[in-house]
Amino acid sequence: MKLTKLISIALLLCGATALNAAEKHYTLTSPDGRIAVEIQAGESLTYSVSHDGKTILTESEIGLVLGDGTQIGKDVRITSKKQKHIDETVNAVLYRQKSFNTKASELILNMKGGFSVIFRAYDEGVAYRFATTRKDETVIVSETAEFNFGQDRLAWLPYSTNEKNEVAMAFQNIYDNCSLSTAKDRLAFLPVTADCGDVKVTLMESDLEAYPGMFVKVDKSELGLDGVFAPYPKKTDFYPWRMQEYVTETENFIAKTTGVRSYPWRVLAITECDTQLPVNNLVYALASPSRIEDTSWIEDGKVAWDWWNDWGLSGVPFKAGINMDTYKYYIDFASTNGIEFIVLDEGWYNPKSGDMLTVIPELDLTELIAYGKERNVSIVLWTVFNVLDSQLEEACRRYSAMGIKGFKVDFLDRDDQTAVEMAYRIADACAKYKMTLDYHGFYKPTGINRTYPNIINFEGVFGMEEVKWTDIENNMPLYDVTFPYIRMACGPVDYTPGAMTNASKADWKAVYYNPMSMGTRCHQLATYIVHDSPFTMLCDAPTNYKGEEECVEFITSMPTDVDETIVPAGEIGKYIVTVRQKDGNWYVGGLTNWDERDVEVKFDFLPDGEEFCATIMRDGINANKQGEDYVAEKMTLRKGDSLKIHMASGGGFAIRLLKK
């Protein structure tokens, strides 16, 4: 063998040895020892995850590419590490429980160049994030975020609904329940869930601030999901109808920030049972703590809503619409039934004007506010995100002084960095003026409701508005027993239930002005228990609730702020049973898909030695054909009792248990 060839081989072997020596391996385990994260730092930065010794995520690469060409996560040099144990009690505002304890093992790896990566292993899942100590401007061209499963897993993927510009849409779609190998070549928005056999993994994010949100796309070669991020906007324009801002041109980078900061948490909730998913607390736990010192002014409650029923009053002596007579009627209905709010939805200002400081001539807002105040009904105003943002200080100052309680903010329909910054800017300004927010047309919750608890609800859900125009193939009862396990894991939902016209699968059709729900009346009633929803609508017209006082009374008696939530039974895509507790009273709701189903409700959660007066609303014997058929029963129940309940096709049940 020639000498030069021997020298070359020796050099290659030395290089490989040096590379292997430079590569460092770290292991992080959850407090209970069942979840392990293996981190490799060398030529690239990768991690893998196992549960009870079984691999969930195979080696997956993470990293950042900066505007100056620096690649964080390539040729990694760890300069120091720090480990600690986290044991925190989180007190929550308008959350599914008043407080909860969270424990985790944390590993911080500091890298050359002023960046670090932080991993946490909880008993409930895994999270990681990047952070920087750089004080100057940092431009991030791209982020690598791989989630490789290594096997052809079954997944629930909600695809973007905009084929031309996938990162611009309302974050509302049903789930494609498919194997990774057969998934569409489309972006999916978070959360997404994958079935890994013994456990399910739900991908979410938390503490998303001054950074774009993450989409995922299936990588069929690695049988995984890859993170995709909206680029930073360069130019925008406005749709004329609502003066809604949209992006027309983008930069060649995804984020631009200045100073020391952390980047969003990438969250993998790991659950053995489907019933653990709706009560997984990782997104809330990982978010930045509240920036509102006093939260006592923040009010939850129910809403008599105008838009879904299209101001559809009947049998009244005035022309229904966006006028004083109509809204006074809504206020009277709300007052009579103990409903705390009405919303003035689109039309109270001219949406084409983009000016929410000028009320249409048909409305005297001062008079309407006074009329509501006399009857203990508050008013919330609808607006478009960028319209509010453009008039933010004056709108908050004027309307809070008038007595408006908050804004329902709509049509953001994007989650690039500037959109996310707008959401924080609005939340901060409204908090200063003690105004609450319902974020509609919005991306999934990422814990901002912990940071700004005045954001009391979010859309980002394929809710009741869809039945005004969708197809029967967009199976709402199926969706209703799917999204609580996926979308609701990251935060509350403004689903807007309450329909009094309820149709079977055979009879349902989309009707815009007089819409009907898919499924039964009791399916609708149960949503007020199953949904995390601190600000929730009664979507039907006040005149449609006439003659349905028993159902209205039941709905309005449901708490929107609870002390405790349990999901004792259920299976994703099939059914769910949810239990909530408030001030020692208990509420149980159940939903099924289009399949009839028998469930046994065991009242083991009740305290020893107490009796409860139970009101049970269940599907009637003819509910399979007549969706509005239901039965109301009363009985005394105590711990150890159980009830067998039949749910009709698209059905449900709701139980209220009051202390005797």
What can you tell me about this protein's structure?
With 660 residues, this protein is of the alpha+beta class. It has a domain at 24-286: Beta-galactosidase, Chain A, domain 5, CATH 2.70.98. 16% of the residues lie in helices and 38% in strands. The protein is built from 11 helices and 39 strands. Strands 1, 2, 3, 4, 5, 10, 13, 16, 17 and 20 form a 10-stranded antiparallel beta sheet that branches. Strands 6, 7, 8, 9, 11, 12, 14, 15, 21 and 22 form a 10-stranded antiparallel beta sheet that branches. β16 (214-219) and β17 form a beta hairpin. The N and C termini lie far apart (95 Å).
Largest sheet: 10 strands, antiparallel
* Alpha-beta content class: alpha+beta
Mean pLDDT across all amino acids: 96
The N- to C-terminal Cα distance equals 95 Å
**Which blocks of ≥5 consecutive residues have pLDDT under 50?**
1-21
| Coarse shape | globular
- Radius of gyration from the CA trace? 26 Å
> What fraction, in percent, of the residue positions are helical?
10-25%
Beta-strand percentage range: 35-45%
The CATH architecture of one domain can be named as: Distorted Sandwich
**CATH topology name of one domain:** Beta-galactosidase, Chain A, domain 5
Tally the helices: 11
For the record, what CATH class of one domain applies? Answer: Mainly Beta
For the secondary structure, the number of strands is 39
